[in-house]
Design the sequence.
């Protein structure tokens, strides 16, 4: 049998999966639950403001849950005044008497004798790793209620936006509430994609956006700064005249603006398709900022998806038409931002940023952002493809973002009992 974990006990208490028949504390007093209380996911007791009849007395206060009652001492709750208002200790196995700091005994309810065999069987089946290749509930997908699943995906889409807001708020604090600088950092991270996102972000964290504002009218100056600070112009003999030109420009601007590239990570070329080479993406971003002044304001006020796409019409400078790296020519092709790549920036940058900015301004835009996400194509990656293999459709970016949140926040962490799908299967 799969060992019982504490999250199952939380689930049982929260959803009142206890027998209707009277239960007894370890001290043989009758227990009847009037209200389970509010589930607390932060520090302190597990459930606040519960109401429980113990004997003939109605108690109001907090409930703490452990696998064993001795865990109370293992977690040093006896030294923490936050636990003085615990009215009931709920455990799987009662192996020790527990006292408050005033030496009064806390009533203990042992659950292992009160849980139905059906619930334990469902729990065991869900977490049986022999039955899965991707996620715990993959065998149960056909029996999941469609209405429940759709509602859960709606919530997960917003939950993912809320999670992304944490990074945005950190950036906003670092930039002293400069939303344009936050957009710049997010776009750098987005243009770097998975492999070079961290390296590009390190450039954004080191380059003050005031410099971008000052030189944005000259694309070659902006490009020289982006490539130079990213250590892509080299210290050796330049491969051709254009690299030499950019290097001279960067050396001049580095001195003029006192630029410090010492902690900027050098981006990778390995495992990347040539259109995603850092040289190309940074040149395209330079062109975007050369063409669009006050880009943040324009993105926040754009009224349609078509208008948003127009704002992202950018391409690498002419040198890159027949180059991917310095000194090596390739078949000539203008390297514009593709619609697919722009859509990724909408998903990972625009929508989270608009969500966060609107909240800061006291506006509700969730329905607008859902509408935009539903107009964009679904992302394609191993996680989304694995859900599709389970006959879970992902027709647009709204569903793919929700499914990514489902997998990263719940499935991959075995938090099935905090998931609407998993908890319904156990119930």
Sequence:
């Amino acid at each position: 049998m799969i060992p019982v974990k504490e999250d199952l006990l939380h689930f049982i208490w929260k959803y009142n999966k206890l027998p209707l028949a009277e239960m007894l504390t370890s001290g043989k007093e009758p227990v009847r639950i009037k209200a389970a209380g509010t589930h607390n996911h932060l520090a302190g007791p597990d459930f606040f403001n519960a109401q429980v009849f113990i004997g003939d007395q109605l108690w109001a206060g907090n409930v703490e849950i452990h696998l064993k009652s001795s865990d109370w001492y293992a977690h040093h709750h006896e030294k923490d005044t936050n636990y003085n208002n615990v009215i009931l200790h709920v455990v799987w196995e009662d192996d020790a008497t527990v006292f408050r700091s005033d030496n009064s005994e806390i009533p203990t309810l042992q659950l292992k004798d009160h849980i139905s065999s059906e619930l334990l069987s469902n729990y065991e089946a869900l977490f049986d790793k022999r039955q899965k290749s991707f996620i715990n509930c993959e065998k149960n997908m056909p029996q999941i209620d469609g209405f429940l699943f759709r509602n859960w995906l709606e919530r997960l889409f917003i939950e993912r936006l809320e999670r992304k807001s944490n990074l945005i708020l950190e950036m906003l604090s670092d930039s002293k509430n400069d939303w344009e600088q936050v957009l710049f950092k997010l776009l750098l991270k987005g243009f770097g994609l998975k492999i070079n996102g961290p390296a590009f972000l390190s450039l954004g964290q080191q380059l003050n956006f005031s410099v971008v504002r000052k030189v944005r009218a000259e694309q070659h100056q902006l490009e020289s700064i982006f490539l130079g600070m990213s250590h892509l112009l080299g210290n050796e003999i330049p491969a051709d005249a254009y690299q030499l030109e950019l290097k001279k420009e960067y050396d001049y601007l580095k001195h003029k603006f006192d630029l410090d590239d010492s902690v900027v990570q050098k981006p990778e070329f390995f495992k990347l398709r040539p259109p995603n080479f850092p040289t190309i993406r940074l040149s395209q971003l330079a062109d975007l900022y050369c063409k669009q002044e006050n880009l943040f304001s324009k993105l926040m006020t754009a009224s349609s998806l078509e208008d948003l796409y127009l704002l992202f019409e950018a391409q690498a400078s002419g040198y890159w038409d027949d180059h991917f790296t310095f000194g090596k020519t390739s078949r000539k092709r203008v390297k514009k931002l593709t619609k697919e790549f722009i859509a990724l920036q909408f998903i990972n940058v625009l929508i989270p940023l608009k969500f966060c900015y609107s909240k800061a301004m006291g506006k509700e835009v969730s329905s607008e952002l859902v509408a935009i996400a539903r107009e964009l194509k679904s992302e394609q990656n191993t996680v989304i493809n694995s859900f599709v293999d389970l006959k879970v459709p992902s027709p647009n970016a709204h569903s793919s973002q929700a499914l990514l949140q489902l997998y990263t926040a719940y499935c991959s962490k075995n938090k099935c009992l905090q998931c609407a799908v998993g908890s319904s299967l156990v119930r």
Remarks:
- The longest strand covers residues 57-68.
- The chain has two domains: 6-115, 178-375.
- Strands lie at 23-24, 30-35, 38-39, 47-54, 57-68, 86-93, 108-110, 323-325, 328-329.
- DSSP finds 17 helices and nine strands in the chain.
